[in-house]
Design brief:
Number of strands: 3
Strand content: 5-15%
Number of helices: 6
Shape: globular
CATH superfamily: Winged helix-like DNA-binding domain superfamily/Winged helix DNA-binding domain
Order of helices and strands: HHEHHEEHH
Distance between the termini: 40 Å
CATH topology: Arc Repressor Mutant, subunit A
Radius of gyration: 16 Å
Largest sheet: 3 strands, antiparallel
CATH class: Mainly Alpha
Strand order of the largest sheet: 1-3-2
C-alpha cells in the first residue's frame, strides 16, 4: 500500500468518526462493553440508527461484537482510540474526565 493509499484509508476512517453519536458511543465503549440498545438509549436515537453507526465503525475495525447468550456487546478493538478521543476532548471539552486522566506531571530530568 502506498503512502497516499494509507492516507486515503485514514481519511475514510476519520470521516467515519466525524459524527457526534459515534464519538459518544466511543466514549462509552472506552469505559465498558455495551449493547446496541444501551448505546441507542444513551444517544437518544433508534436502535436501527445505532446499529448503522456501529456497522460503520466496525468496517474501519474500530470495534467488534461479542455474543453473550442472546445479547451482543460491542467492544473497542483499536487501542489508539483512547488517545484520539483524549485529543478531541482536550480541544473541545477540556474539563472532561478523559482529559483530566491524560494530564500528568512532566517527567523528571534524568
Amino acid at each position: 500500500m502506498t503512502a497516499l493509499e494509507s492516507l486515503g484509508q485514514a481519511a475514510e476512517c476519520l470521516r467515519t468518526l466525524a459524527h457526534p453519536h459515534r464519538l459518544r458511543m466511543l466514549q462509552m465503549l472506552l469505559q465498558a462493553d455495551f449493547t446496541v440498545g444501551e448505546l441507542a438509549e444513551a444517544c437518544q436515537i433508534p436502535s436501527a440508527m445505532a446499529s448503522e453507526h456501529l456497522r460503520l465503525m466496525q468496517r474501519c475495525q474500530f470495534l467488534h461484537s461479542v455474543k453473550s447468550g442472546r445479547r451482543v456487546f460491542y467492544r473497542i478493538t483499536e487501542p489508539h482510540l483512547a488517545n484520539f478521543l483524549g485529543c478531541i476532548e482536550a480541544r473541545f471539552d477540556p474539563e472532561s474526565a478523559a482529559v483530566k486522566r491524560l494530564r500528568c506531571d512532566p517527567p523528571s530530568p534524568a
